Amino acid sequence: MDSENMSGEVKMMLLNHAKTLRLHTGNLVNRSRLKKKCPCSPSEELQDCIQATLNEWFPTTKPPSEDFPDTLDCSIPQGTDAITPEEREELKVSAKLFLCESVQSSIRDAVEMACQTLAVSQLDSVIVAPPGPLEGDSQTLAQLQPAWEELEALVRSQRIAAIGTSDLDKDLLEQLYNWAQVKPSSNQVNLASCCVMPPDLTAFAKEFDIQLLTHNDPKELMSAATFQEAMQEGTQDLNVADWRLEWVLRYSIIVKSRGIIKAKGYLVSARKASP
Predict the structure, then answer these.
(1) Is there a contact between 167 and 198 (Cβ–Cβ < 8 Å)?
(2) Can you tell me the distance from the alpha carbon of 156 to that of 152, in angstroms, rounded to the nearest whole number?
(3) How far apart are the first and last CA of the chain?
(4) Contact indicator for 28, 264 with CB cutoff of 8 Å
(5) Is 128 helix (H, G, I), strand (E, B) or coil?
(6) Amino acid 6: pLDDT
(7) What pairing do the DSSP bridges indicate for beta strands 186-190 and 20-24?
(8) What's the confidence (pLDDT) of residue 157?
(9) What's the whole-number mean pLDDT along residues 163-169?
(10) Which of 1, 115, 124, 170 is the most exposed place for a label (fewest CB within 10 A)?
């Protein structure tokens, strides 16, 4: 059997057997193949990264010597961003976690994977973007609470130093602030939806020392259809219809003294839907 057919067969068996897929794009700052195309949006960047990482990872994968694994860890060895203990003090490690499903264990899994991948014991800040409410509904405190409690537990266990929110208006931010044991340190506002920061939000944030940040992420970072398309392109058209995106964590590592981005990348988790 030639190597190409062998590779295709191994790929199919790996995907058929696996229940979970964990993917690390590596440092996008250094990866020249992504510099040729300048993605217009975070969604396009993520789609490009998933395709490119799968395209690079699968050809290097050999048949397992024993059983096929339940979890596929797709990462490119030379693309990792492990931080040495000597440089940790000089760097700020921030993350934004996009939850695609309301599963609380996703938060812990994502933070643990980020700490392991970057070789740190703690992330300096994590902003959470929970799954959006259904069309026509607005987000409520009750929807936010389970995710926030999980983040608070990670602050208490010193896995995260500071936690923040995304796209909360003044009323919801105030409700969360009053209820939460660990207070939000930041709130991201999408300037596409409001060109100027709302004055009531600005006043509340100033009074309670909450940093207001801006972002340009869409409400849904990646649709199910776009994720399947990226998987299909990355695996050369294998059947990937069962796979569902669980969460995406985007991290950045910034040199504190110079304010420059040393590394940036995505960690992605997907699972196979039960038949």
Answers:
(1) no
(2) 6
(3) 32
(4) yes
(5) strand
(6) 42
(7) unpaired
(8) 97
(9) 95
(10) 1
